[in-house]
Amino acid sequence: MFRPLPAFIGLRYAGAQRSDEDSAGLVSFISGLSMIGLILGVALMVIVMSVMNGFDRELRERILGIMPHATVYNANPDINWTELRDEIAAAPGITAAAEVWQVNGLAKNGLDVTPLLVQGVNPETIVNVSTIDDFLQPGSFAALTSDPVEAGIILGKGIADKLEINVGEQLSVIVPQSGNSIGGGRSAAQLAGFKVVDIFHSGTALDHTLAIVDWEQAKALAGGAGGAGVQMRVEDMLGSFAIFQQLLRQLPVEGYYGSDWTGTHGNLYQAIQMSRNLVSLLVFLIIAIAAFNVVSTLVMVVIDKHGDIAILRTMGASTREILLTFVSQGALVGLVGVLVGGALGVLGSLAVTDAVAGLESLFGIQFLKSDVYPVDYLPSELQWGDVALVVGAGFLLSLIATLYPAFQASRVQPAAALRNE
């Protein structure tokens, strides 16, 4: 079988040991460290990139699945919101729309009070722009108005935990400055009682802020003034700002305003991207350091093999063949390191979510809390393109690291080397 001479000798050097046990042991130790460094660096970078991909996915599919891509408001009480919703839904670039009435208020249960965003929704249309129904029990929307005496409310788990309230219990919602005035021209607070019909757990920061009621109940809380709008989903999430601005220009009546998701959650998206880039850079430097440890390994091999190199030169080996011999040896270290590291990284990416959840359950702690982080668990999404990029970059750095010692080996002079043997 044909075997290229430089590759054959390089692979023999990678596994061969010289009679000088101290020298061979040191070379093997440094070579092992180089390979272990590559394995850990590649595996860590694959896992880190998968976790960052997971956070990006959760922002797009979970947080922005519940919240709209954009919302338009108008304080005019004469607007027919049903007609406006249908008009917006038919606009270019918009896939769905739903009317909503948003009110900022306080929830009170006994002595416990917490702020919340109350959204009055139409159960028939809200499911077109939000995935909130995926986190609710069947019939929860219908339960909002099923009791003719007391209206229902759906709370996020974070709110329910703060208020220590359960499904079926009573809750008071206070809306300050709702438009009802008292003596002296000050605004009175609007107070309404609700029955908790469901508690949703999305695993996001929305669990700590969002409450859902019927449209008419939110309108009554707001005193009929302000807070009404239309939520929408767009075809191109990253182009939502341009679509939203175009829609505002097309609406016939003055006074429309609002924002898209880049205004409400854009800072979170930018933070995820920046964290991804910075962490990837740091881990990439770890891979580079491990790859360039190959330099020290090959330098010692070149010193150890001076006599062998001289003999090869006297037997007719060219400078190019000597150079490729040591490149082959360094490439073997790099190839094994990045392949094993890539495999461990893939396994780690697939298991990291369950592993962290297991540690949380074992020690009774929670590493991520949704009132601080975007989600309350560690997400991961493996993308094979990232694996190929990391493995390829690690192997390329290993090859680059072999050039200097291989070049030094190719410059060994046979007469000078054999004189010292």
Structure notes:
It comes from Microbulbifer agarilyticus. One of its GO terms (biological process) is lipoprotein transport. Residues 31-221 form the MacB-like periplasmic core domain. Its main location: membrane. The chain is α+β, with helices and mostly antiparallel strands. It folds into two domains: 5-62 and 269-419, no CATH class; 70-260, no CATH class. It contains 14 helices and nine strands. It has helices at residues 5-15, 21-66, 81-89, 123-129, 140-143, 157-163, 215-221, 240-250, 261-264, 266-304, 306-314, 319-363, 384-410, 414-419; strands at residues 70-73, 94-109, 112-121, 152-156, 170-181, 187-200, 210-214, 228-234, 257-260. Helix 10 (266-304) packs parallel to helix 13 (384-410).
